[in-house]
Amino acid sequence: MHERSDKAILRVLDGEPVWPLPIWIMRQAGRYLPEYREIRKQAGSFLDLCYTPRLAEEVTLQPIRRFGFDAAIMFSDILVIPHALGQDVRFVENEGPKLEPITSLADLDRLSDEMPIERLSPVFETLDRLRSSLPRETTLLGFCGAPWTVASYMIAGKGTPDQAPARLTAYRDPAFMQALIDRLVRASTAYLIRQIDAGAEAVQIFESFGSALPPALFDRLSLEPIRQMVEGLKAARPHARVIVFVRGGGPNLHRFASARVGDALALDWTLDPARVLPTLPDGIATQGNLDPLALVAGGEPLMQGIDHILASVRGRPHIFNLGHGIVPETPIDHVAQLIARVRGSGT
Per the domain annotation, does 3 fall within a domain? Predict the structure, then answer.
C-alpha cells in the first residue's frame, strides 16, 4: 500500500474516488498552444526538443501555467527507446517519424542488447527539473510506448495503416518478433524505473496500436509484454503507479482488468463508460475518455460528452482525460471550457 497522497490523481490511482474529478489530457503540451509552437521553432528538430532539458521542461510546464491541469506529463516521445538502442530515428516535418527498418534477427543484432540508459539522461534531467518547478499539487507523469506499438514503428520504419508490416512479420517470423518484443520489454522496464527515480510519480504505458492485433496475437504481443513491464517496474519500485492505455482495446479491456495489469486503465473514446465501468472489477481506477473531436467541435456536443462521462463515473476512482491525444486544431477556449465544466461539477 502507498501512503495516502494529497495529490488527487495519485489518490485515484490508489483506488479512491475523488470529486470533482482530477483532469489532464494526452498531448496537452503540443501544437494547439501558440507558446509550444514558438519553442518548437527555436528547438530545431523534434528530437532536439525532446533531448534539451531546458526546452522540454518549458513545454511541459506551458499547459500547467495556462490551465492548471492536475498532472504534467514529461515532454518526450515513445521512439526515444529505439533511438537509444541504436536505430536511426528522425522526424520529418508534416510526415512524422522515419526509422531505418528492423526486419530480421540480423538487423536486431546491430542494436544494443540491453538498454544503454545513459543515452536518455536528458529525459531524466527534464524530470528532475520538473520535480522542482511544478506546483506542489501537480502530479508528475512519465511514460513510454508499449512494446507492440514501438515494434510496429521499428519494423515498418514509419506509422502504417493497421500496422500491416508488423502483423505480417509476427506471422512469418515469430522468433524475430518475440526477440524484438522481449528486448523492448527489458529496455522499457529499465527506462520506467529510471523515470521513477528521476521524479515521476506515476507512468503511463501507451499501446496506441492495440486495435490492430487479432485475438491470436493479442496476449503474446500486447497483454503479456505490458504485464511483464508493470511487474518488473513494481518489483523494483513498489511505490510506482501505472496507467495502461490500450487504444482500440475494447474487446480486451476486461483481460487487462481481470489480470490487474496496472493501477488504472485508460479508455479510448469508442467505449461508453456507462456500459463498460459497471462490468469492471470493483475498485479498479479508470481514465478517459472524451472524443478529441468533441473538444474541437465545442458547444453542446462538448458539454454533452463531458456530462455523460461525469454521470457515468460518479463514485468511482476516475481521472478525466480524452480518449486519445488532443489534436492541433483544438481551440484553446474549448480546453478552458472543458476544465471549467469538470471542476464545476459539484463537490
Answer: no
Domain hosting 195: range is 8-343
From the candidates 153, 183, 227, 341, which is the catalytic residue?
Answer: 153
Residue 1 has a CB neighbour count (10 Å cut-off) of: 7
CATH code, domain with 332: 3.20.20.210
Q: Which position among 31, 220, 237, 255 bears the catalytic label?
A: 31
Catalytic residue among 11, 27, 247, 316: 27
Q: What is the mean pLDDT of residues 241-249?
A: 91
d(CA 81, CA 67): 30
- Residue 77: active-site member: yes
Catalytic site includes residue 291 = no
Catalytic residue among 14, 77, 263, 268: 77
Residue 84 lies in a domain: yes
Output the pLDDT for position 2: 66
Domain count, the chain: 1
260-319 per-position pLDDT tens digit: 889 999 999 999 999 999 999 888 999 999 999 999 999 999 999 999 999 999 999 999
Residue 303 lies in a domain: yes
Instruction: Record the pTM.
Output: 0.96
Say what percent of the chain tops pLDDT 90.
88
From residue 131, alpha-carbon distances to 16, 141, 142, 236, 266 in Å are 24, 10, 12, 21, 24
